[in-house]
Amino acid sequence: MTKRIVEGIEVETSSGNVFADLGLQGAEKLKIKSGLVIEITRAVRKLGLTQEEASRRMGIPQPKISALLRGDFTNLSERKLMDCLNRLGYDIEIKVKPTTEPVGHLTLAVA
Question: What tens digit of pLDDT does each residue of 28-79 get?
């Protein structure tokens, strides 16, 4: 991240992953999970579902839906979040490709 001064205030440019910028462990996974949660929230709103309806459809207890829609996804795996999107009528594709770096990266692309 680079730092610069804007109107007398030091500004640091983001890496593109707020979780990494905050120094959190598992930043790539957290970014993926947060992106999936954003899509779930959009889907629930688009479909006009109540939390109870979303709960039945996604197979998750209503209190967990409430927490999820407030951004608390700590107790849900990436796999479970993808399953939720499937149950809301969304397809998920996983693309695997070689990288030029020694260790690859996780990325979420939304169509």
Answer: 999 999 999 999 999 999 999 999 999 999 999 999 999 999 999 988 999 9
89 exposure class (CB count in 10 Å sphere: 0-12, 13-18, 19+): exposed
Phi (first) and psi of residue 9, to 5 degrees: -115, 130
pTM: predicted TM-score of the whole model, two decimal places? 0.82
| CA distances, 110 to each of 37, 40, 94 (Å) | 12, 12, 11
In contact, 22 and 12? CB cutoff 8 Å: no
Burial (CB count <10 Å: 0-12, 13-18, 19+), residue 58: buried
